[in-house]
Amino acid sequence: MRKFFNSLMLLLATHFSFSQTLKNDATMTKSKTIVFIHGLFVNPSSWNEWKTYFEAKGYTCYAPAYPYHEGKPADLRNNINPKLAQVDFENVMMHLSKFIDSLPEKPIVIGHSLGGLAVQKLVEMDKAVAGISINGGTPKNVLPTLRTVRSMFSVINPFKGKSVFITNKKWFHNAFCSSLTRQESDIVFDEIAVPESRQIPRATLNKAFAKINFKKPHNPLLFIGGEIDRIIPARLTKRNASSYKDKNSIADFKEFKGRSHYICGQKGWQEVAEYVCNWLVKI
Questions:
Q1: Of 129, 112, 93, nearest to 225 (Cα)?
Q2: What pLDDT was estimated at residue 30?
Q3: Tell me, what DSSP letter sits at residue 154?
Q4: How far apart are CA 245 and CA 224, in angstroms?
Q5: Which of 64, 134, 226, 253 lies 20 to 30 A from 259 at CA?
Q6: What is the mean pLDDT of residues 37-65?
Q7: Contact status, residue 125 vs residue 269, Cβ threshold 8 Å
Q8: Which residues pair with 223 in a beta bridge?
Q9: 219 half-sphere exposure, CB direction, 13 A CA radius
Q10: 164-165 and 221-226 as β-strands: parallel, antiparallel, unpaired?
Q11: Measuring CA to CA, how many Å separate 250 from each of 32, 110, 139?
Q12: 29 pLDDT band (50/70/90 cuts)?
């Protein structure tokens, strides 16, 4: 009887060890593919320097555009596609999901602003091995701050119907590039700013698809907040990260001082990119 009991215990221990090894291997699986996801009011050109940085680290990088966001920003401002006004958050997610399904391996996803919320959805959909949300938009089931509502009201304004939001330099400076001088912000505007569909941010407030299941186990997530972001304050990013409940899943938070919503482009962006790179090595 004792011999049988000892054999049973050895079998169980071996099984547990093997299962744990599989679990650890799955957690430590490394992808060398990164998909960068831009936010609202800009297009993939906003990721050019980050792509160069991570490609030098050995990653294969992609930066797909939302529907009707492909091209040079100046051309998009001068020739607005009327179909842009119909694009909502679910359209964006299906577009990104289809792109990721075409890749040879499941990627790491890095998103800024609305792209940060897209990161959360892609991880929830098991489309990514890890996700980094930088000054990310929040899902429907995380209450936005009053500052966020004030910054975004002119965009989501329900009285504007299904129209395109025409980004102007004054708004862009006040909300997006508040850490820069107006002259510096205007240069950034000329380089990366594009018109935007009002339906995308509206959907994050009133569509069930924009919710996140915070109880579900998930692949590693990193949330980065900018201290002086006027659209997504760092405390809102922290609240978003802390909403995840599974104790065995990673949902880290890091705040960077003196960073505005333009955190991925303002002076010192390399510090943020380096932090992301080091975090990816550790998970």
A1: 112
A2: 82
A3: H
A4: 18
A5: 64
A6: 98
A7: no
A8: 133, 253
A9: 26
A10: unpaired
A11: 20, 16, 18
A12: low
